[in-house]
Structures
1.
Amino acid sequence: SEPITMGAVWTARLLCLFLLLLNTRQSAALPHNTGKNSDQCADGSDACHIDAICQNTPTSYKCTCKTGFKGDGKHCEDVDECDLEYNGGCVHECNNIPGNYRCTCLDGFHLAHDGHNCLDVDECVFNNGGCQHVCVNTMGSYECRCKEGFFLSDNQHTCIHRSVEGLSCMNKEHGCAHICKETPKGGVACECRPGFELAKNQRGCILTCNHGNGGCHHICEDTEQGPICRCHVRYTLHTDGRTCVERDETAPTTPDHNATSLPEVDKRVKRRLLMEMCAVKNGGCDSTCKDTSTGVRCSCPVGFTLQPDGKSCKDIDECELHNGGCDHYCRNTIGSFECNCRKGFKLLTDERLCQDIDECFFERTCDHTCVNSPGSFQCVCNKGYTLYGHAHCGDINECSLNNGGCEHTCENTMGSFECRCHAGYRLHWNKKDCIGKMSLSDSECWISVSDDVGLVGNQWKLEAGDTFEFLYLALSVCAIAEQTDTRCLFLSAEGCDRACVRRHSEKRLRKTIRTLRKSINREQFHLHFAGSEYELAKKLVRPADPPDHCGTGQVLLDKKCVKCSVGTYYDGEQGRCFPCPPGTYQDEEGQVSCDVCPGPKGRGIPRTAGARNISECGGQCGPGQFSHDGFVPCLLCRHGTYQPEVGRTSCFPCGGSLTTKYHGSVSFQDCETKVQCSPGHYYNTSTHRCIRCPIGAYQMEFGQNYCIACPGNTTTDFDGTTNIMQCKKRHCEGELGEFNGYIESPNYPGNYPANIECTWTITPPPKRRILIVVPEIYLPIEDECGDYLVMRKSSLPNSVTTYETCQTYERPIAFTSRSKKLWIQFRSNEGNSGKGFQVLYVTYDEDYQELIEDIVRDGRLYASENHQEILKDKKLLKALFDVLAHPQNFFNYTAQESREMFPKSFIRFLRSKVLRFLRP
């Protein structure tokens, strides 16, 4: 392999320092001797070495070096046990520490219960070793294999479908044992995985001792023909040429057969026949076997218990006792156990307790407001917007819902809507009804009324005062063919009084300013250009330090400035929020006053404090009712009409000569239609048939006469849609930066649309490579690969492929790109849909390509569910990506922060990789 550059070494050492800091622990202070003895050993006046023990004698004292040290007691030095007794008895690595030593094992092995021997780890037991298809365990390692019709990708875990034949790596006859790469001039070139060397035929790969210890149990030596295995001096090589078994210490060395008498030979043979030996089938032991004078003695490693037969080892189910100490779930494994957390939680570094994941930590989680909760979160949209795709907010087209309730015309706006009236009418206080304008001529007033209300008499003399603001008029009202005498209140034409016009204009201006201020606070701006409506991009900033004081309309609550809620107003003198007094209301936040409730005076209408909108002011006609001004006294909607809202001056006709079962109907569903329309349809009153909702609209209820337009810029895949979640955004998403970024399927995390095609190209800066992380991907396999994601060097179908899938994988995977530039394509057909994906990437210095590949190709990265959660946790991935892209950012993370981020098992896994990379 190529020499490691200084940049790679420096970066790896930073990562190593990062790992060491994670495990830094302060030593506990030793208590001082408080004894009253005044002898030299007690008062510390002795001359013993710090690593010696002081013992009193009748006349003086003596010094003795502690165990693990040597010397005369006044000078002690550490005994290096690793230089004694054949590597300290360790079969792999011996690490000397002051006064003691510790045996460690190479990657792919774990320490036996005796603390010296190393046993093979079966990586395939845990989540199939991270292999997509077949996992095959080997001594000290494992390998992934693919089913027929697939070949193994460069990441050595996923399998790529053979879809193209020809002179390329997609051709199964390329002959490369491990990695196939296409050359610029055409043809293929073979490469080997780390730990292997390319054979002389330039196709095969020869195993070396750098991969899984060469398949050797103990000692591995490289030769031209491949690794040769040897055993520690206390062990002997098994006939398989790889495994090491303990020697028979009771057997004598083999002498000349003539030097031993036949009776002695007979005794030895008889003894061997009567006694089992560890050299033969491990003495019948499941695990560790030791020869003794009375026969073999079997023992089991930690996590197992020896069975009554003295041979078998049974796994201990640690989860049966107090759930293994786990906070949520305990999963028993062979010889151990693992704590796991419920979805929405992560395991703390003690590997026992679970902590809620704050999904709202990232700005991209929700379009508008993110509300975190234990184990979950919820996206909330601003007023006038509705949620779709689980996380996105789109403008509600209120005009598509029964014309917005407007009597005449409805105009949709971003986050709201407006009702407008025809000429000769003006908008009622309820902002929906249109009432006839009164005109004055020669002190005479004519009043336009609706068809269902008649006036007894046709002309009234009025005396117009100086102000002409409010008038009371006694009328005899005829409604629904029933004569009724009542007292009615009419509001005069405001245009007749300048002072009234001025006050009305000021009120509208204040409302416009409030709306603008709210838009500024929410950072939502919209503009019209060339006949189209656009929403300006917003960029959230991180919360600053707690403010000393808050602005007008806000109070300090939990170190945050919070606006006065709806139904209240801000009192500047007292600096507090108070409920709106009876007879007033406030439907916006952070206001310094309340608006006067509309309606007539003197009718005894009950008023309540804290009204949050006009409807809570009281006195309005309820659903299924109406009156000439929307206030009591009210009349029931007549046959063939209905009214779903409060405070209305008329009722909507069913249309098509349809009638209702009773007076006071509140919905079109009360109209007696000739057929009952199901969800996804609306009733056409002209043809009296059910019509499917068009593309871009939906209806979730039975028996409605309209369909609801999809929010924002979303649409549906087909007509006849029954749910807002089938409204999907078709725009391909992603942020492609030089050092990191992401791509995601349209409408993610909601289901992606049908017949979509997205392409992205990742082009890293010079001398940088791409690391991809796919936390999870949801593509319906029952579609026969109609929906797929592919990553290649270019758009050419025969270019080098890094990743390709058309299936669902909830288990994450990380891999490096096979090419410096990456072309990515996602396509869907008209069949089933799925959640899709969000794929993240980071670019790193190519000098430590070997280290990154060694990490992502190791199945232990995915073996633990807790390791998998790291690759799904956006906060942890951001920290890892931050250091990989810019190693100097490592110093931005304190040791305490780092320790709180990652479980110990993950740190141990990374440390072994970094140390191997730095090893000369």
2.
Amino acid sequence: MKRLITLLLSVAGFATAEYNVGDRIPVVLDHFGIIFERDTVIDTATILYKGADCYVAACYINRYVNKKTGLIDSTNTVADTAFVDSVAQVVYEDFQTNGGKSKLLSVMGVEPSDLVDVDGDPRVFIILAPVYPGKKGAADNYNSDPGLYPFFGYFDPFNEDTTDTTGLSNKKEMLVLDVSPGGVPASGYPALLAYLYSRYVMWSLDPKEELISITGLAMYNAFKAGYDVKEGFVAGRCYGGLDDNTNRSLYSYTYYYTNSPVAREQDKERSLLWFLWLDEKLGDDFIKELAFNKDYLARYQITEKLSSQLGLNMPDAFTQFALTCALNHYNVSGYTFSSLPGYQIFTGSKAVSSPQRIKENGQVIYVPFKKAGSQAMDIYFKGQEGNKMVISGDTVPGFRVFVFDTTTKDLTDYTDQLDTINRVILPQISGKHNIYVININTSTYYFWIGPGAGEPAPELIGMYSIQNPAFLKVADIYLASKHILYSDASPADTTPKIVLEPADPSYNSAIYKLSTFLTNDTAYHGSVMKRLYTTGVSIELKDQFGNVFSGDVYVKLYRAMNKLGIDVSNPMEDTLGLVHIYGAGTYSLIGGNVILDIPQGSMANGTLLLVDKADAKLALADGSEGTVFQIGASSIPVMRPFTVWLATDGLRGLYYKNGDRWEPIQAYMSPDNTYLVATLSKTGTYLLGRPSAPELTVPELWAPTAIREGEAKVFLSLPSASSVSWSVYDVSGKRIAQPYEGTLDQGSYVLTWNTSGTSSGIYFYRITVNEETHLRKVAFIGR
């Protein structure tokens, strides 16, 4: 392949050129594949050294096209030519005089004939130049990510970008070293040159290999040849940031260049460590096999070898490697491991000594925990939900979580404690520890670190729903809690979430995030309410065919926990009923607790009713007692009365909330005494029980007209304290019983008469309230 390229180029007229010291040669420094757009500028380099293995040339001025004007009016100029000359001498002596080329080829046993030679000259060109950094600001409408600059050097093979054959290229094997002001010291350039030449060697062995594997193999080759590429490169930071010292990274990442050999070099050091780890586990012969195997990508060979020889799948191997880097001398802080697509790590260093939230999405986080003193801290880890991956049919966690005690050197694996939403609450920690997270899927995750107060699980008070009177297709759902609630460890998730699930699974569920409605501590339902949360939800639920749902909807907690990830101690749900009215119909809702009988013409077709029930102390909080029934909204027009059955264990007063007033409603018990039955002409809020301030002006009573053996009942509501008397007479006028005589306070009552031993027949009730007497005729039909 390499010889074919050389032959074709020779036939095309590219004859071998011989240069001498002092000659000036044309070079293209910033063409496509290295910098954003193919340049049309030819610069000039002067040959400073010539040997059997290389030319060393300097280009003191680098001109390039201004991307805004399109003119050749931008330049990079070497300010210190003496520095450039000193670098030229250092790299020539290392590469030529001291046999650097031979050392680099001998690591893998590479012969010169194995290398691509496009110009017929076995020498490589080492060009020293002020490289155009490629920085583009927002004003230029380009990506201003600082990771696009600066370059410290690159390997430039002929026609490196096979997708673009237009424009200028150098048509020679060329290694470009950046000698811009503020670059690396002269002593650092031999290591950079060794790495770049090794890239040329690895690319020559297999031009089709993935570029990140070429990076790792090149670093490995330079390291094995004796060059300090690891310790010399580690101090630089990812995204182009540089430490203000001489131990700088010699290359920052350039992710735009996906078709170029310079692509994905953002982590040469971590790639080196990966191949050193593979060498340690699988042997150096395997690394050589990777370099020379042209028919199989290195990452596939690595995966198969780890499995067959060590029994490791890639997530497990990756975890071992990452921990080895973190716990041992391989720790290279500040780089992204990208040797294999999909298995990348970012090792960040965050010293934590006070309560705080941390958000990350890198693949390894290294958190030094340095809390002083004896106070323990609670630590809650939460990975973004749903992050599981399947390998060979097995589901494995997307996260691995470890805690390292820097004093005892104990490493504890908490991976098995991750629950189904990738959450784990670590034991209280004090002193110095490191936390390591292996993030297989590169997903977002969070830490919440707070003072160890042994915070208990939060407790709920209740839930209820009200149909919005202005927006009838919306319900306002309320959740009362004794504690402050969160839905996740993210700083944005400081309120709980609920999910609406229709009883019919053919209709879609929906998740809603609640907002805080009340925040003050409030005496509530025999306890203290810390928070009342609410949200508006759509109640016009449809299936895929556009049909509107009628029936029960379950309102469940989706996420409700304290800030340390502890779920509520009493998870609950609310069931609400939805009625989509078209004509007449009977609807059983809330598990049969409410039955609506809607006659034809009662409400407009398409009307949507929400029905819910809740404890009056929760829904009203005004001193009322009993059960609140929400039957639609008060703004819904009712043209004809409808009937409602409300489940109850005995008759109590029924009231309608009309503004600030409670209006009594006539109601009676069903024959089986399980439902209170009423005919209603309004929708809205009803109370079955005792309102805080009933608006009764006259006594109200009701008695069944037919009774059986057992207990006969009279239901009585009093507007104020009253004297009450109830007597029973037969048809002859004889009083046969007096079930009650006395004084009752304001409120609703059920008076009873034991009818055992009473003969069948007609009887009369005489009920006196204060000075007002009521007569009722009843039929006793025995058993």
3.
Amino acid sequence: MPRLFGVGFVGDGQLGEIDSCKDIQCLETAVEIDGAPQNIKMIASGVKHSIFLTTEGQMFSVGNNECGQLGRDELLNESFTIAPVVLKGGVRVIQIACGQFHNAAVSDDGRTFMWGSNHTCQCGEDACEKISFPRRIHSLTGIVQVDCGENTTVVLTESSNVYIFGLIKDEHTKPIEIESLSIYPIIQVAAGGTHFAALTASGQVFCWGKNTNGQLTGKISDQFKFEPIAVETLSKVIYVACGSKHTVVLTTEGRVFAFGNNAQGQLGDWRREDVVNVPKIVSELLGTTITGVSCGGRFTFAISNGIVYAFGLNNTGQLGIGNRKNSGAPTIVKDISNVKAVYGGYEHSFFLVEDIADLPIHPVGAVHLFKIPKFLTFNHLRRVYDSNNKIELIGELESVFSSVGCLNGSFLYEDDRRYLLGNTSNGLNLDDVMHAMNLLDYSTSVEQFSDIIISSLESCEIFNFEVNQTIKKEPNLESLRVFFLLIWIPPMAKMERKYVEGFLYRYTHLLCKVADSTGKLFENWFNVLPTRHFNRFSLSLMRMLEFLFPKNFENYPVLRPILKLINRMAAVNRSNEKIPYTHFYLNCLEEKVNVRKDYLTYYLYHNPELTADNIEIPKNPDAFFWFDYPCIMNVAAKSNVLETHSRAAIQESHQRAIFEGLLTTGLAYLNPYLNFTIRRDNIVNDSIAELMNASSKDITKPLKVQFQGEEGEDEGGIRKEFFMLLFQEFLQPTYGMFLTDEESQYVWFSGFPVEETPFRMVGTLCAMAIYNSILVELPFPLALYKYLLDVPFTLEDLLELHPSEGRSLEQLLSYDGDDVEETFMLTFEMSMTVFGHTEQVELKKEGKDIPVTNSNRAEFVELYIKREWKLAMKEY
């Protein structure tokens, strides 16, 4: 059976009637409380009174009643007897809180009751001297938590909204919302003297109010700040407590950090400082796993294995350390053990003692102590879904999807991954989201569920661009999870007009703004998304684009945000090939858009010195061009753009040559063409010689070819034949530059040491062919283009180029015997053959002496593939 002990000031009866201490005003060591209620769940204390809550939901009070804070006989000035606080109608209370002279209670159905002093509206109603009995505050509904400051109150709703009231900014204030917190999954609120704190589901702490002593962290100010400050240096916090002017937090590892006023040592540091505006670890508790913390007015408690450590103000003996001297470092509370919970008041304290078997061995967080807002989990949604209680399921969906804070707290990992917020993680278990939303998607009521989800989301103020500015200006990582969660809602797959033109349109526009403001963060999150989620995200965006494009292909403000997001995802995909690049193609693009004209306009826009007839050039700096989004262009569209670019560049070069002729000679004559005279039987050497004699400006001119000894003007046909014959010759092994694999018929670099010049010439000639709108056959594998894009090669690339080599390596990797060394008889070296000459190349130092075994064969294959490409291109 739990036992209750008290310590500190007893003059007003706040500890109840203690027979052994009738003539004592202050207790320096803990004494068991006579007449305490059974099954105590929690205790809250004011300056001169105390409130007790039992596990059955009944309240009791004791102490001074000059402001009606006992909630019973209004004619009673004080009571040394612990007696019930009666609420009519069978109300079951789940949490209580005390300010200096006022109280608050939350019932299991979300109602809030308050009583005591109300001269600053701290009870949530118009100011009056006092409220002598618990009164329901009708303006507060759906409340899950409450805490009281000296003359203030803070409440948390089931929708993760935070309200404060009382003496705020030196004014008497009725409940007002801290709007910027509405996008966060708040799991606990706490109130100090004139400051407040809120804790999120991923262990972030926000503080606001007055920062006279650093209790918010940051810049010191005696002005009340409504905008919460994120305490950046804290992470993995599971509980927060506030004293009069200090703040204390507990982390998952059982460590304690404190900041604010330390004049009496309440931060656990012997250095008495009025201002500590950065969180400092209570170093003397290191090595001890703290399971709980509590703040009194100007003192602090920490519990570990039933032992209580106390530090701070001790003027009435409230620390229980056997004297009335302040303690600047954690000191063990005397003559008491097996403490499960401790409750600090202003000048007195309580200790709840349990059997040792019931003591916590791990840190106890807010989620275990208080009711929290509605957050969805897959298991919970599955239970409701399987119960066939459709009304309950609809209620859950409406509650959660109408609150951004609740969405950001839903489907989080249940382990420490929920606290990992950074470039590679956001704490969201997208697999659980996927499974949960698939339940709805496969339901016969999916359309009804979709309508409910969308209508609920429409009510979220975050999606009204002008309402919530916080997320657009300085997005916090924990506020952004909602954008990833929503990719799995059923409407993302349906893409019906009522969804796309309403919520989904606004969703993508806001997501684009947020992605722009977070820099590389979203790209990093996209990059670590498993393929199934990355594909869903990209597929949803492409479906939306395909839906909107036919009627909005000239309405650029509508399409630009979606295109920018697709561009971002395509850029991520290029680096790790999560999905085929063809998934980003808008194949209907050329049905509505003249990509040639679009590119030409783009070209002229970025080269303002050029002009063209019948082309209107935009003047605004934010002009729209489809060419800015090349990932959506399929092969045909890209080919048309490339051809247009070539023609535009040729025309530019042609005009420039004529203009330069006018400037230099006064005559409109300067050959606008690059002329090659070539012998058919010496096509390679002649081509190289012509290129060597041409300037960089010359090779941008249209090419005209004349085969020596042959008549005819080059109108395009001779030029085409020239490139075809030239590349056929270059690819022959005679020149030692390239080799053709007999099986795949792909061409690759020989690896033979050849001078750099021929390769530069081949590259230049390739560019000239494209420039002159000539298509030539160059049978290189995909690996060449991966090399140009700096994308790593894989075994699949080797299989494409050299199938026999690739299959051999596949067999090595898939062999399921334990005798790899004896079966394959390989070492860490490879054979390279050029012009009939074979040499052995080591894959690592002393590789010829290292056998390939079951344990190192994967390393062998990796090194083999890397060396294959390096050997082929080592000179270039």
4.
Amino acid sequence: MNSRPLVYFALCWVLGSAAGAGLLLSGLMLAGAGLAALLYVQVLRRKSSWLLAAACLAAFAGASAERLWADKHNVTGFPVRTEQTAADSGSGSDSISAYKVEVAGTILSAVEVDGDRAQFIMNVKTAAVAGEGAPRQLDELLLVHIKLAQQKDQAVAAGWKRGSYAVISGELNLPAEATNFGGFDYRNYLLGQRIHWLLKASGLSSVVVSPGARFSKPSLLSHIDDFRNSLGRRMDVLFPAEQTGYMKGLILGMREDLDPEQFRQFSQLGLTHILAVSGLHVAVFLYVLGGLLKLLRMTRERMLLFMITAIPFYVLLTGAAPSIVRAGIMAMLGLFAARLNKLKDGLHLLAAAALLMLIWDPYFLMDVGFQLSFLVTAGLIVGVQPFRRLLPQGKKLKGLFDMIAVTVVAQAVSFPLTIYYFNQIHLLSLLANFILVPFISFIVMPLGGVALVLDALWHGGALGIGSAAAVANRLSFGVVLKLSGMRQFHFIIGTPPLMWVAYMYTAMGVSLSVLYRRGKRTLPDISLQQHGSNRPLHGGEEPAGEAETQPLGLPEYRTGANNKDPATGGSWYKRMPALLYMMLIASLAVPVLWAYDPEWNSRDAYVSFLDVGQGDSILIRTAHGKNILIDGGGAVTFRKKGDEWKERGDPFEVGRKVLVPLLQKRGVQQIDLLVMTHLDSDHIKGLRAVMANIPVKRMLWNGTVKQSEDAVNLLGSAAEQGIPMYRSDGGLSWKIDEGAVIRLLGEQRNDYDHSSVPYLKEQNGHSVAMIVELYNRSFLLTGDADSAEERAILARTASSGSLAAAELQDEGNHSIAQQSVPSSAIDVMKVSHHGSKTSSTAEWLSYWHPSTAVISVGRNNSYGHPNNEVMERITAAGADIKRTDLDGEVEFRITARGELFVRHMLGP
């Protein structure tokens, strides 16, 4: 510790900030006491001085206090108003209501115009709240959304600048919170940016913008925005249209125009860090700048000073994300130390950068980019050298093995956080990074940068270089497309607990230390043992200033008297390396295998009614790990001719933004049965994203086709992937595994060749209806069945009797057979068609007599769902009502003993 005081001081600061964010005061005190005890032991072992131990403890306390202070003052100055909701259902609860305001303040961020929406961050100074007298004096950030009414409004909004003074009339809304277990919490995300409210305004008539203070910080930053946008426009000319979004992200950190599908492919291969402007970009920038300054015959001292001055401008130009801020600070500190001829190793620079950023804003610690940037950089500094010793040491192919070491260490260090946040790993990621990172870094990026700079002097030459970069891009895109398309190498791992992440990094640190110690064994030490010496030739420890970077807190290995000389025998010594490496591999592999299937020994089954807004999506997990997904939600959009300009570049799509991340977080590696109850968009639109990201083994649908873009695209995707499709046939049942059965309701077709597939515009009355039985607990799921289909199902069910037929075998080991449906009370019923008045008749409710009724419905939907009369009928039937708009996701857990437990994401 004494040789690296700044590193340990920064580490304790990080621990203190994390403890302040995640622990109560009692837990914080306990953690502080534990750290004090650990530091005391280090002092007794003479690994740390009393002064350093006290400084580290003070760092922990100071960081904790800073985070607690930041949280205490991160509050809103606007009133929080509540209203009673769903009182008619008997399950009323208080919800925070929106209200009208007129605010005045300064535009702080660049204005983003996307389709019919303009968005920016505003610092509000005064606010007139509806129902209040005098305006409130505030100093608060708002995220402003302005809905544009006409296409010409886009140009007006794009002309607004940072630093401008704005007066806006609109409605104040709370950001959406997580409504599914493990879902993205937008409210908490914005809270980390000290934003508590969304201000929604309609039309330019609600906004008045005027020039602000000329020399304010936002006004000065607006000039950076203008320059950045001008460079973006140059790139629109220099590169093909399909590549401009990628090149803007690569060179300038502008990811707004990046193709979402292309980003998905890069993400699957773990290549998104290429698009995160970071240390590599700073290094290339400084290399090019240094070369130009050498041509001008500038002295070393002046050149270093000029580069230090240029770095902040480059950081601002590329968007000032945490990764580039970290790299910029490290580069500035390193250059300054080099100018003073006191350059230390990278760990000191990294520690100083972390300290400066967290002291400036403790919320940086919660940023995923911050975490990955610092951890991977630290891993490269500490881990490459020990790992490199495992590879051939000759001069031949030295550069190749150096690249292998860097790539492997970077992948290993990022693995735990990648699993925790992104839940997927591709076995070809290592190969993709090894091939593409150098190619893009040393060919594409320099070509793009040179083309951009040269365009100001020689447009024709810039176009030529841009064409060369475009060819290189097509090569890299082809490799990405080919590798990401190999789905057999793509694995989904559910979000593990934080303790798993901590264990993995601890195990990596121990493994690294062992590798380092073994690598430090030297022949002189061994030869001295043969002559009776038990000490290294040089004795003692190396001076701190000469020590190379090594795992923190662990001494350098010295061969001692108890170690057998391999030249004189000692068979345990010969066996030790193999045994040791096997233990190290097991310490890392076993937790990964557990994370892949953490519930391998659980026999509970789950039925989850997911909150996907005004739509349906139900996830069923059987006791033996089979996954059944029924519908995938999706918004119904209506566009008039001439309104194409309203389309967003990256519109919200429930499958890609909500459903796929949820399934991945829960470790759904395969969907054994995908059910499309019918082909309306609010039930199937999200399924295309599911099929693109998660393998689907088989599909069940209502046996019809609908002339809609969503239906045609989905059925086409299923055909392209060769997914077997089965048409619903009333009376059939499927035994999924022990204790799990699906019984199909509805019309009996008996035409298993599926020769006739009719077109059907009105789909609701032809929904796939089923009863799912899990450990003898029953769930009635009927899609959007209307009253006519309900009556038909009741008539067929009541008169079905005992039907016997030959079994049908699917391609698995599961049987499909004709069986009768028992007439008995249902434990859980999904209310058809979101509680529409056209369904859930009194006869239907009387026949099934559900204990619990679940309504999947969107908040404040324009259809008026659920209907009041339907709610009254369900209440009269004695069913307990759960609603996704009020309760969020509703999850039922069924134990092997048939016990049924329910929990929901929102509400009491």
